């Protein structure tokens, strides 16, 4: 299976910075083409810009564009929301749902995340479903229980469509902290998630399981070498072209 490297720009960027980043990415990919799938999940106001830049540069053909959140609603009186159809129209092939920052700062529940995944799937967009335990949950020995509960909600709401999702295991304590799960720690949780998906669908082999949490140019290769790690969801290092290119290269072997 081709690996998938997904950048999460979070609340970062500007028209000028995005153009500079994509220009540098294009130069790197021209010199050393990616043999993995690549997506950048940008702030919504920049989706059209990034999609246009991608379309204008053949070296960026491999690059897909994604959103960072999606509404469960199709249209109507939901101020501030962005529908899956709108993301699709702006060229999105993916959307992140249930990122821990949304769960933490916006009170997103497992059920809401499951409905967001459903809205994305209905529009033909691949949801990148994030699951992961907090430090307190890990220290209490609850990692497995937490990630299984989070994924179970998405499986329950999406039935046979579950084979169309991407799952990102992102230990909350590793996001933006510089602390990475060891390859063995990450693999152990990925194996649990893989088994859960296998029990849910006979198409589980096509579901990519990404690791996220301070993945960078130095640790990407060892994480990506694990048997159940099919790619990465990358925050900070996705904003630096040289680092993101090194991660893409590590996923291209
Ligand atoms: C993320 O935002 O999903 C993430 C993993 O961030 P970072 O790589 O900065 O830890």
What would your notes on this structure say?
- This protein is an alpha/beta fold.
- Helix content is 42%, strand content 16%.
- It contains ten helices and eight strands.
- Strands 1-2-3-4-5-6-7-8 form an eight-stranded parallel barrel, surrounded by five helices.
- Strand 1 (4-8), helix 1 (15-31) and strand 2 (37-41) form a beta-alpha-beta unit.
- The termini are close together.
- The mean pLDDT is 97.
The overall strand count is 8
Low-confidence stretches: none
Strand order of the largest sheet: 1-2-3-4-5-6-7-8
Task: Give the SSE order as H and E letters.
Answer: EHEHEHEHHEHHEHEHEH
Write the topology of this structure.
Blueprint: E1 4-8, H1 15-31, E2 37-41, H2 47-56, E3 63-67, H3 84-89, E4 92-97, H4 100-105, H5 110-122, E5 126-131, H6 135-139, H7 143-158, E6 166-169, H8 183-200, E7 208-212, H9 220-224, E8 231-234, H10 241-250
Parallel strand pairs: 1-2, 1-8, 2-3, 3-4, 4-5, 5-6, 6-7, 7-8
The structure holds phosphoenolpyruvate.
Phosphoenolpyruvate (PEP) is lined by residues 8, 10, 170, 175-176, 212-215, 233-237.
């Amino acid at each position: 299976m081709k690996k998938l490297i997904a950048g999460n720009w979070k609340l970062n960027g500007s028209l000028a910075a995005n153009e500079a980043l994509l220009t540098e990415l294009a130069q790197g990919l021209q010199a050393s083409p990616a043999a993995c799938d690549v997506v950048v999940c940008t702030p919504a106001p920049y989706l059209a810009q990034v999609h246009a830049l991608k379309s204008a540069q053949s070296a960026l053909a491999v690059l897909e564009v994604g959103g960072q959140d999606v509404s469960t609603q199709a249209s109507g009186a939901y101020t501030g929301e962005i529908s899956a159809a709108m993301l699709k129209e702006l060229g999105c092939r993916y959307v992140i749902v249930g990122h821990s920052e949304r769960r933490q700062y916006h009170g997103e529940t497992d059920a809401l995340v499951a409905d967001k995944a459903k809205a994305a799937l209905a529009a033909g967009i691949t949801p990148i479903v994030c699951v992961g335990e907090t430090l307190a949950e890990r220290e209490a020995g609850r990692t497995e229980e937490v990630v299984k509960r989070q994924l179970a909600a998405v499986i329950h709401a999406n039935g046979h469509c579950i084979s169309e999702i991407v799952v990102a295991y992102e230990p909350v304590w590793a996001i933006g902290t510089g602390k990475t799960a060891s390859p063995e720690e990450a693999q152990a949780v990925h194996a649990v998630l893989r088994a859960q998906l296998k029990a849910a669908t006979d198409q589980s082999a096509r579901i990519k399981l990404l690791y996220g949490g301070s993945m960078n140019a130095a640790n990407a290769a060892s994480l990506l070498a694990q048997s159940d790690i099919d790619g990465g969801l990358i925050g900070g290092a996705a904003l630096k072209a040289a680092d993101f290119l090194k991660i893409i290269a590590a996923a291209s072997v």
